[in-house]
């Protein structure tokens, strides 16, 4: 097996910095690729938390002026991950969320902040670090989208490039004037085959246009984004580039998400004995101030509260949840109106509806271990990770038939495969309530519910095979460029 060197570029990496599924992928994929002969190092920004965790990292490059202030490139490791860190304090030394202010508004210089990350990625791709010259530069989402662009416009010999879309809704759109400030040719901002995007520029569009290969995080989502609706303005470009576009399902880190060893749950358990799920359910009910009852189906939600995630539809389904004798435990934050409405629903239905606004990794694990079913009613979902964790923990997924949810869950009505959950379409409140009623009936048929749980627990949700698909993609790209 020929070794391959890959530089991954990501704006967040679990367990160091996480706002969403991108971090989980960026943290788990490099470790899984080692078994496939791929040496991956990940470049990320030097946010305060990153700098704290990588104290003592080696300084391998120093710039007196990097995009407007002093900067350094560091090399270090954390939890088995080999990292390059771009330490540019005037761009990254800010509190809280990597992308937005405390008021939830995008940092006004985000274009420059993430162009700086992409610029150094391109430079590493061209040999800036003599000890690690990559065969492939793999850019994740819009924040890394300019890496293929810099490599393209620099000209000359370069590594292969891969652009991965984690969510088409986030495209890194900026005023055209940004192009001049970040060292790209002005012509590139005017070229529809370059950065130009409806009179401005888009970092994601640049990556999709100029990368050698494009991936996204599930086969169904790869088809959906080639439509005008699913492509969100980029469907035509993706149809043109369909020959280099593929969907590779995400996996999860099965060492982190393992009910037999999980330190975050109240009682550990395995597929051979699910008895302790009831004990976790009791602790979860207590945490959310829900009535103590093993006979009431407990629905869990771990989600950003947004239109995309279908959380407005779930609000419409609350009368059905109450009528069916179910309970709801929701952990999430996002749209202020949805937060207010869920908190109001909890106040109006004490003991039945429990809501915690925010995100808590420990509580997320307990919801997986203690919920009877996990709800993911998204209008679109590139892959989704919470339903994969649910399968691993014996929580039965109830999901919409979109994107990776379609690809990872087998509906109870499907034949020829062991069912693992419930899927509904179209993505409406009526269809969701129909699935909730079906799930409630199945829950009270203990043998049927146990079959769903055991089928889920037997599903391979690891990165093992998925990482192999990435390794094959990298090798195929290297071979085609060397041909």
TrEMBL record:
Enzyme Commission number, as recorded: 2.4.1.21
UniProt record similarity statement: Belongs to the glycosyltransferase 1 family. Bacterial/plant glycogen synthase subfamily.
Gene Ontology annotations for the cellular component aspect, listed alphabetically: cytosol
Keywords, comma-separated and alphabetical: Glycogen biosynthesis, Glycosyltransferase, Transferase
Species of origin: Bradyrhizobium manausense
Pfam families (alphabetical): Glyco_transf_5, Glycos_transf_1
Residues reported in the UniProt entry to bind ADP-alpha-D-glucose: 18
Single GO term (MF): alpha-1,4-glucan glucosyltransferase (UDP-glucose donor) activity
Name listed for the protein in its UniProt record: Glycogen synthase
């Amino acid at each position: 097996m020929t070794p391959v060197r890959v530089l991954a570029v990501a704006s967040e990496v679990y367990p160091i910095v996480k706002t969403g599924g991108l971090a989980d992928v960026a943290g788990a994929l490099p470790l899984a690729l080692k078994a496939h002969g791929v040496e991956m190092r990940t470049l990320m920004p030097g946010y305060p938390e990153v700098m704290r965790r990588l104290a003592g990292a080696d300084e391998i490059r120093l710039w007196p002026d990097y995009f407007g202030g002093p900067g350094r490139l560091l090399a270090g490791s954390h939890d088995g991950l080999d990292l390059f860190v771009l330490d540019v304090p005037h761009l990254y030394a800010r509190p809280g969320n990597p992308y937005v202010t405390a008021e939830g508004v995008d940092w006004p210089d985000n274009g420059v902040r993430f162009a700086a990350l992409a610029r150094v990625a391109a430079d590493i791709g061209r040999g800036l670090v003599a000890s690690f010259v990559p065969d492939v530069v793999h850019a994740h989402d819009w924040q890394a989208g300019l890496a293929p662009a810099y490599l393209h416009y620099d000209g000359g010999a370069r590594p292969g490039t891969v652009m991965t879309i984690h969510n088409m809704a986030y495209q890194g759109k900026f005023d055209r004037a940004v192009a001049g400030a970040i060292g790209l040719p002005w012509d590139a901002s005017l070229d529809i085959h370059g950065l130009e995007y409806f009179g401005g520029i888009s970092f994601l569009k640049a990556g999709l246009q100029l990368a050698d290969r494009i991936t996204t995080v599930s086969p169904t989502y790869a088809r959906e984004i080639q439509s005008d609706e699913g492509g969100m303005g980029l469907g035509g470009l993706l149809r043109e580039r369909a020959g280099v576009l593929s969907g590779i399902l995400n996996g999860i880190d099965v060492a982190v998400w393992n009910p037999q060893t999980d330190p975050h749950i109240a009682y550990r358990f395995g597929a051979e004995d699910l008895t302790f799920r009831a004990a976790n359910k009791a602790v979860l009910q207590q945490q959310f101030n829900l009535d103590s009852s093993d006979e009431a189906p407990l629905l869990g939600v771990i989600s950003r509260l947004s239109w995309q995630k279908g959380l407005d539809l779930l609000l419409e389904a609350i009368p059905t949840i109450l009528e069916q004798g179910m309970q709801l435990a929701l952990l999430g934050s996002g749209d202020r109106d949805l937060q207010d409405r869920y908190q109001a629903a909890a106040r109006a239905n004490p003991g039945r509806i429990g809501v915690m606004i925010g995100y808590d990794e420990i509580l997320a694990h307990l919801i997986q271990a203690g919920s009877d079913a996990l709800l993911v009613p998204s209008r679109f979902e590139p892959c989704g990770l919470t339903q994969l964790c649910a399968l691993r923990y014996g929580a039965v997924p109830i999901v919409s038939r979109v994107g990776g949810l379609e690809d990872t869950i087998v509906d109870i009505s499907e034949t020829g495969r062991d069912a693992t959950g419930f899927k509904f379409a179209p993505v409406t409140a009526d269809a969701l309530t129909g699935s909730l009623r079906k799930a409630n009936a199945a829950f009270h048929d203990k043998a049927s519910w146990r079959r769903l749980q055991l089928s889920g627990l037997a599903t391979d949700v690891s990165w093992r095979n998925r990482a192999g698909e990435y390794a094959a993609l990298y090798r195929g790209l290297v071979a085609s460029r060397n041909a």
